[in-house]
Amino acid sequence: MINILIIDDHPIVLEGSKNLFNNIDDMRADTEKNPANIPEIVQKTPYDVYLIDINMPGTNGIDVGATICSLQPEAKIILYTGDQIEDYYSLIVEKKIHGLLSKTVTKERILRTIRSTMDGDIILPWSFVDFVQKLDQPQISKQPLLLNEREKKILQFVVQGYTNSAIALEIDLTPRTVERNLSHIYHLLNVTTRTEAALMAKELKLID
């Protein structure tokens, strides 16, 4: 039996996600809407797989997954999101998570991903291959980049997995302003995605 904990701050999403596992003989799912409760839950009743929403108030699924793994190293972490999953491929490369799911995937894809994760395998779209190939391409020279303080803050949040809306709340800007700043950052870094920007920021040591 695969024991699953679904972590999401939206009760309706939680209920719908849990219902996916009804009548699935080899899986059992529970839910939790408050990420602050996770450390206690993991220590008392650890689960095999944690299916975590990336965007939650006051935190994000990446940090929640890291907390779980610090308490339960053998835990399997699968993030699911309404954003483009390509933005989070770097987490797979860095072995911080074990799977990625879009909220639009089918029930069959979710079940297959969970079973594969438990078997030590991973299911990802072909776009992941393109992402890995780009990692092997020559990068821009490591010359100093003229990022202003606002852009540095935005880039820091991008590395941490924040969405534009979440970043806007953190630094009191409109999502549109964050988007414009992010476009300028992409131009300076010669990248086109959040994942590439995050990797470049680490490569060039642009963040603390």
Automatic annotation (TrEMBL):
Pfam family, one: Response_reg
Modified residues (4-aspartylphosphate): D53
GO biological process, one term: phosphorelay signal transduction system
Domain Response regulatory, first and last residues per copy: 3-118
The entry's keywords: DNA-binding, Phosphoprotein, Transcription, Transcription regulation, Two-component regulatory system
KW Flavoprotein (keyword) present: no
Domain HTH luxR-type intervals: 140-205
Listed Gene3D superfamilies: 3.40.50.2300, Winged helix-like DNA-binding domain superfamily/Winged helix DNA-binding domain
GO terms for MF: DNA binding
Source domain of life: Bacteria
InterPro entries per UniProt: CheY-like_superfamily, NreC/VraR/RcsB-like_REC, Sig_transdc_resp-reg_C-effctor, Sig_transdc_resp-reg_receiver, Tscrpt_reg_LuxR_C, WalR-like, WH-like_DNA-bd_sf
Name the record gives this protein: Regulator
Species annotation: Viridibacillus arvi
Lineage: Bacteria, Bacillati, Bacillota, Bacilli, Bacillales
